[in-house]
Amino acid sequence: MPQTDTKRFDWLAIILYLAIAIFGWVNIYAVCYDEVHAQVFDFSRQHGKQLLWMGIGFLLAIFVLLIEPRIFSQTSYLIYGVVLLLLVATLFIGTVTNGGKSWINLGSFKLQPSEFAKFATALAVAKYVSAIDIDYRLWRTRFTLALLVLVPAGLILLQHDTGSALVFAAFLIPFFREGLSHMIFLYGLLAVALFIAALLVNPYLLIGILLLLCLLYLFVWLSKRTSKNYWHTALFFILCSMFTLSVDFAFEQVLESHQRDRIYVLLGKIEDPKGVGYNQDQAKIAIGSGGIVGKGFLNGTITKADFVPEQETDFIFCTVGEEWGFLGSLTLVALYIGLLVHLITMAERQRSTFSRFYGYSVASILFFHVMVNIGMVLGLVPVIGIPLPFFSYGGSSFLAFTLLLFVFIRQDADRNALI
Prior knowledge:
The structure is a single chain. Helices cover about 70% and strands about 5% of the residues. It is mostly helical. A 3-stranded antiparallel sheet has the order 1-2-3, covered by helices on one side.
């Protein structure tokens, strides 16, 4: 291994990572705690297992910081290909857990390749973007980038892990930073709006409204009416209509029944406080009961009574709200915001396109996870089951997020040499 000057490492990013990870373990311990299993090193319980994964994760982080940084760009496509093979293998040999076939049994350890797919995709796309004088206006470029992102996302979707597949939408942020047209973002917002509207109202009524808006655009707001404008408007209307009519099919065939029900609950189409909306309702009760300063460490009554399923994983934020209160929740959110803002600052100071794009990918993936996880606990977004980075219980997720972050920290340490 080459000699490495540790002074070049971004210690603020490392400290924020450690603070979030340790605070996460404390809350996992609080969820699992009882008088029979009070020992910190009880490896039969989640808190003991998470301590083991954290130790492995810290060793992995040290290893990444000590190796030659160029190896990540040189092996990007190889890593991407290996992870794709693992995703395909999962479809055949994976085990079903909570309705999703996302895990590969490796003895006493379960590997979730979808967690590492985000890291591999970030490397592969960064490599492609940096390898050529990329022009986002070319359809060939857009198609290649879309393929690199959508292939792993599609394989994960086939595993019925919709939440992990949606995370790949985060790659739009680094694409915009590198010059992708803002119109793509607006089209994405339009697609989301049409999707929601098609679930709330009759799709044929929605198409009628779209037709009226297109006619108003042509004859009222558009001053120069040419044949080109007519054709573009007609194509826009046809595509929007086809999308609207396909929403019902996609909603019924792609999403699981419990995922559909969660979206209906969020949109207010059904009331089911003891069914699909139960988790969110109990999580909000737990957070609200914590008040300003919380009930105190190990004193969470709702936490101890197991009213919220998956409380050590997807719903761990409600433990923070109950035991640490508003101030504790604010502290955790501040740690995440501090890390995300600092990662963007680090990305902007990179001298190579590969490192800059990869850095923005890291920040975007973490942002998506934090936003959706906390949002679903608060009832702001549907429950799609993705972990809180470095905080939720899980070996695959902790190792994958650690690898994702520390590869960038290693790149940053040699940013002046990696041009």
